[in-house]
Write a structure and sequence with these properties.
By secondary structure, the protein is mainly alpha-helical. The two termini are 16 Å apart.
């Protein structure tokens, strides 16, 4: 769930939106107008996307029935937050699509053409070392831990980046489960750079808009034929709204960032969070059968809200994003791919240590902290000794547009 990142020149002030937030879009890019691109606040936002997913996997009791370990009102609140954590994946999709599209647009202006082969090599060096190592580990882990399973069919599906399809066609319990989203992203990136290589920006906007409409139509069809949760939420055709929104943001911003005051940004961010909680609480997306209008539009609204969250922090250098731009948050965002990969393993290991985490508030909190702290330790070690050598090779030999230095 990460994106190409290497080191840093800021977006030009000349290509930013006007201070009065009139949404004026910068003019056409020229080679002199582009260079490196790095926004530290997006690293912090990437960590928050992980925290959202982590909340989903640790607060899984939903909003139905009594909550033995919490007052019902508090249980409903936390249950709603847990359900809304599902949209952390959509936020990852928005971030990845926005950043990759922006970097490829800059490369196209700088060089006159996209080097698609170099793009694929960058993706391989960023994703493959940790991805494949963990899948092999998960396969062995399934032989040692009761309840875990990862058959050769699942292994093959993950190796072919079709893990999302295998995951819901052949249901499985595995610590590699979260990697279904990596498969979905990689499927999209098999196609997107080729479209960007040959199409105008106007045509790319049309492609991205059509992708979102196609996803809504696919969910409508799926709701009629097979409205199961995983069939919709992990399907390559029904869960691409966030990718479409991220690409649309990059294309329409045209290299610019909004110059909004902190109050405007805070209001937008709060509204987007409330929309996500509202969808989680009222749309019933996770309790099939889902009503067709909610199924069709719910995921689209969530993706748009995630795009709004990105927009609310993008380009801000003031107090509103001070935490996101702090060194701890930037670092945690930098290792967020490892956090995403390892957290299910740590939660599986931690479950027997806190056997009452489903019924005791204190054990639930201890279980939550154990999984988070363990994930950070493992992700930091993985980043330092496994991922970083490949990232340096990527930056030195295959990077065209500089982003954050890893």
């Amino acid at each position: 769930m990460d994106v190409t990142n290497t080191e840093t020149t800021d977006v030009l002030a000349a290509s930013a939106w006007s201070v009065d937030a009139s949404l004026a879009i910068p003019g056409p890019r020229s080679p002199a107008d582009v260079g490196g691109f790095y926004r530290p606040e997006l690293d912090g936002l990437r960590f928050l996307a992980f925290i959202a997913v982590y909340m989903q996997h640790t607060i899984g009791f939903g909003i139905a029935g009594n909550h033995q370990h919490l007052p019902n009102w508090l249980g409903d609140l936390f249950g709603t937050i847990g359900l809304a954590g599902t949209f952390g994946v959509d936020l990852f999709f928005v971030l990845s699509s926005y950043l990759i599209t922006e970097l490829l647009l800059r490369e196209r202006v700088m060089t006159g053409v996209l080097d698609v082969k170099a793009f694929y090599i960058r993706r391989m060096l960023r994703i493959w070392p940790l991805y494949f190592l963990f899948i092999v580990f998960a396969y062995g882990f399934a032989f040692a831990i009761p309840g875990e399973e990862l058959t050769w069919r699942h292994l093959l599906g993950y190796f072919l980046f079709a893990g999302n399809w295998v995951y819901f066609l052949i249901p499985v319990t595995t610590v590699a489960g979260p990697l279904w989203s990596v498969s979905l992203e990689e499927q999209f990136y098999l196609v997107w750079p080729w479209l960007m290589r040959g199409a105008s920006e106007r045509r790319l906007v049309q492609f991205a808009g059509a992708l979102m409409i196609f996803a809504m139509a696919a969910r409508l069809a799926m709701g009629i034929v097979h409205p199961g949760d995983d069939w919709v939420s992990k399907n390559s055709f029904t869960r691409v709204d966030g990718i479409a929104v991220g690409a649309l943001l990059a294309l329409t911003l045209n290299g610019g960032v909004p110059q909004w005051r902190a109050g405007t940004r805070a209001a937008l961010a709060a509204a987007c969070v409330l929309v996500l909680l509202w969808i989680a609480y009222t749309f019933g997306l996770f309790e099939p059968p889902v009503r067709l209008p909610q199924l069709m539009f719910g995921w689209a609204f969530a993706a748009i809200a995630c795009g709004g969250l990105l927009l609310s922090v993008l380009g801000d250098a003031g107090p509103f994003t001070a935490l996101l731009r702090s060194r701890p948050f930037i670092y945690l965002g930098r290792i967020s791919f490892g956090l995403y990969v390892y957290h299910e393993l740590l939660l599986t290991v931690g479950a027997p240590l806190f056997p009452l985490h489903d019924s005791s508030a204190s054990q639930m909190a201890a279980y939550w902290l154990f999984g988070l702290a363990g994930s950070i330790v493992m992700a930091a070690a993985s980043y330092r000794w496994l991922e970083l050598p490949f990232l340096r090779l990527k930056r030195q030999r295959f990077t065209v547009v500089e982003s954050r230095r890893d």
